[in-house]
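BUG: 3D viewer hangs when loading the predicted structure for this chain

Environment: internal workstation, default settings.
Expected: structure renders.
Actual: progress bar stalls at 90%.

Input used:
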Amino acid sequence: MDLTNKVALITGAKRIGAAVATALAKHGADVAVTYARSKTEADAVVADVKAAGRRGAAFQADLTRPDSCAAVINQTAGAFGRLDILILMASVYEAVPFDSLNLAAWDRTINVDLRSTFLCALAAVPHMRKQGGGRIITFSDWLPRSGRPRYQGFLPYYVAKGGVMALTEALALELAPDDILVNAIAPGPILAPPATTAEEHRKVADATPLGRWGGGAEIAKAILAFIDSDFITGETLRVDGGRHVK
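Structure tokens produced before the viewer hung:
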């Protein structure tokens, strides 16, 4: 796949996002990333993109703010001259016991995981229309894709990620006439959270049919497949090592 002169923007390009950015750059794309507070990590991603011989940039964005969602899309298109690929990975993932839930906790997750996905996509569409098409890739989760919440304490997260699937399908229908294809990735055990203990890490691996965590490269492969296809849209793909069947 040759993405030379294509421009991609990744929101939340930390950890898994870094692997995706590097993969896109190795296939020829220029890559912009957003960060909220992790400037050092974002700068490291840009350095990797440039090491692959492509242009890179990092933009600070508070995706809880609607104006910031639109601004970072326009910044990217302004800096690189176009926008072909939008990958919406920014997410709030935090456990909040049900009895501690309040509007602030709800908004903290919904506004980033669901609302910013819509607002960034909305801002990107005019840029993609100018060049006759594009790709929007959103991020859900293997649990709502499998139709079961399973873990307590993640009510806003589960609802947001379920909403992302619905948004993906609706956007795919609306934007098909513009040749803008919209799909979602639903990750399972890809990279363990930093605080994961060795025992917790092993238990997840044991509960996964393939017997291991996936790693960021597996998400990058799925994204590249969506970008390469001209006939897949409105799909949510689990990348979970078979976790949903066990």
